Amino acid sequence: MDPNEVDKPEDVAAGTVIGAKNAAVRKLNHELGIPPHQLPLEKFKFLTRLHYWAADTITHGKERYVRVLVLNR
């Protein structure tokens, strides 16, 4: 995890989430080949954060916080 992709709780509460936006730009380039210069950070809008937890077995599980962003072109 890149340090510029980590948000503080107060960033999430304020809706600024610059770290999540940086991660989104990186993953859109990696997964879809969209160059970062086509994805200005100020065009991303933070909608919400979801807590995901799936119990695969009794002793193991998967837990994540997912940020939902929309790209406003």
Output the keywords:
2 helices, two-stranded antiparallel ribbon, alpha+beta, 73 residues
Kindly describe this structure.
The structure is a single chain. The protein has one domain. Helix content is 29%, strand content 29%. The chain contains two helices and two strands. It has helices spanning 9-14, 18-32; strands at 44-54, 62-71. Strands 1-2 form a two-stranded antiparallel ribbon. Strand 1 (44-54) and strand 2 (62-71) form a beta hairpin. The model has no long low-confidence stretch (mean pLDDT 87).
Provide a brief overview of the structure:
The protein is an alpha+beta fold. 29% of the residues lie in helices and 29% in strands. The two termini are 27 Å apart.
Determine the number of helices (DSSP H or I, runs of at least 4 residues): 2
Low-confidence segments, given as residue ranges, are none
Helicity level:
25-40%
Q: How many domains make up the 3D coordinates?
A: 1
How many beta-strand elements?
Answer: 2
Question: Biggest β-sheet: count, sense, barrel?
Answer: 2 strands, antiparallel
- What general outline do the C-alpha atoms trace? globular
Please tell me the overall pLDDT: 87
N-to-C span: 27 Å
Structure classification: alpha+beta
Radius of gyration: 14 Å
Strand content: 25-35%
Order of helices and strands: HHEE
- For the biggest β-sheet, the strand order reads 1-2
